Amino acid sequence: MSEPPAAGRLVVVGGGPSGLAAAWKASAEADRAGASLEIVVLEADDQVGGKARTEQAGGYLMETGPQGFLDDQPVLREMIAACGLKDEVLAPEPAANRRYIFRGGRLRELSRNPAAFVRSGLLGPLGLARLAMEPLVPARRTRADRTGRTDSMSSGSAADEDESLFDFAARRMGRQAARRLISPVVLGIFAGEARKLSAAAAFPRLVAMEEAYGSLFKAMRAGRKRGAPPPGHRTFLQGIQSLSRAAVAQTGIEVRCNRRVTAIERRGRGFTVTSSDRDLTADAVVVAADLPAAADLVKGVSAAAADELRQIESPPMAVVHTAFDSEATAHVEPAYGFLVARGEGIRMLGCQYETATFRERSPDGTFLTRSMFGGGVDPEAAGLDDDELIDLTRRELRRTAGIDAAPIYTSVARWPHAIPQYAPGHPQRVARIEAALEPIEGFHLAGNALHGIGLSRAIAVGAGCGERAARRVSTE
Ligand SMILES: Cc1cc2nc3c(=O)[nH]c(=O)nc-3n(C[C@H](O)[C@H](O)[C@H](O)COP(=O)(O)OP(=O)(O)OC[C@H]3O[C@@H](n4cnc5c(N)ncnc54)[C@H](O)[C@@H]3O)c2cc1C
Asked: What is the DSSP string of 91-130?
């Protein structure tokens, strides 16, 4: 049985950050235009938040997905204000500026201070010399530069122009820096391999820096001269899930949980959305489900776009929280944590020192850590059972951080499809997906599959979809 259509109805599939941003922005846009728009969010899970999930137990506050977000999107700030969370935004402790890489059997500080960086031994003399030459390395010429053409076909977007992140880093900074610095850093963001990620899609800022200044160092120097601080890392006092919860509570968005959408089909100028509940008709749809569910749902409107989405891998991850008595971690230098270079015989991708970063996360006298496993580099690790993962975490924290004690609290979370991997050729794939979906009026694809895997980008993309959907429905 179909629910009767309202004057204008937008159905959002997925109550994660991106879907809720879409619903919030659509509602604000309809209010602004004085239009009547019914907005329904269908969420498969029993709660909102998607991977931005906060768990509290034993006095600990644990983030099982994102630990924080980058404060780089004006629309995210707008959403935070609309949700009444401005005063809840939390910045990390100053100690969290310190980060380490485990390489050559010990933790080495990734320092911004040149003398300390040289002393860290992260790079050898040849690697350092090559890194220092970065400003002299000519910028890469795209096909457009070579041919002098500026049309979209020649703007450096052909598949052969899309460099892997590793190749980009090796070309600019040298192979040693690509292997010893960039590859581990990428583990902390994509949980993926630098050789299997597109530089342009995964780190568009780096590519833009080269394009604008001809050199990463020159671009950084120019940024410092302009006094432009890099965007900060932030979270909320009550955890990252606060934003999704507040979006629902403060803006009155209608969310129906435990409703898994199984199909979306075109119907006249609108859509029929089939879920584990009854069917809904909609004038516009925003799909903000994560991969691979998004691909299955897009299939109903464009088989070509769905096929392309299916090619984007999102391997599994496990997140292990372990808390220790702080006496057992007294020797641990307060820091954000560390990443582990591959080839060290360690499966952990990295470990965040939660207590040192956001002191509110654990009771006094304890030290909470969060270790990551799996991802594109070692998907099998995410399949180990809980006891094996906790055991592995203990062994590897002993080898890396020298934490020898038994944990006083443990918890394991898993994501079967954690973080989309933007492979070389991703920009071209995005263009094909968007070209296939563009003619389907009222259909919008949000989420983090295409335009940035981070929370702030997923929110910006979702808000953009919500705004466009509301405009279309309100002007009909
Ligand atoms: C371990 C880990 C660590 C991360 N760390 C960071 C970090 O530190 N900083 C950062 O910025 N980002 C981080 N991320 C990425 C961040 O989680 C994503 O950017 C963000 O969750 C994307 O939001 P979303 O709404 O697009 O998708 P999701 O959060 O995945 O939400 C999708 C929602 O859709 C629902 N859904 C799926 N299928 C259906 C269906 N058929 N019907 C109805 N509902 C459906 C799901 O249940 C879910 O609620 C991390 C991710 C992981 C896994």
From this structure: PPPGGGG-EEEEETTEEEE--SSHHHHHHHTSS-HHHHHH
- For ligand 1, mutation pick of 13, 18, 46, 51 (most atoms within 8 Å of CB): 51
Burial letters 267-291, b for 16+ CB under 10 A, else e: eeebbbbbbeeeebbbbbbbbbbbb
Each residue of 1-13: pLDDT tens digit?
A: 455 444 699 999 9
Q: What is the CATH number of the domain that holds 160?
A: 1.10.3110.10
Pocket of ligand 1 (CB under 6 A): 13-19, 42-45, 50-52, 65-70, 260-261, 288-290, 293, 317, 319, 415, 418-419, 447-448, 453-456, 458
End-to-end CA distance of the chain: 26
Domain count across the chain: 3
Is the same domain home to 269 and 303? yes
- Residue 437 belongs to domain with CATH number: 3.50.50.60
Q: What is the pLDDT of residues 86-106, one digit of tens each?
A: 999 999 999 999 999 999 999
Whether residue 120 has pLDDT greater than 50:
yes
In a domain, 287, yes or no: yes
- DSSP assigned state of 462: H
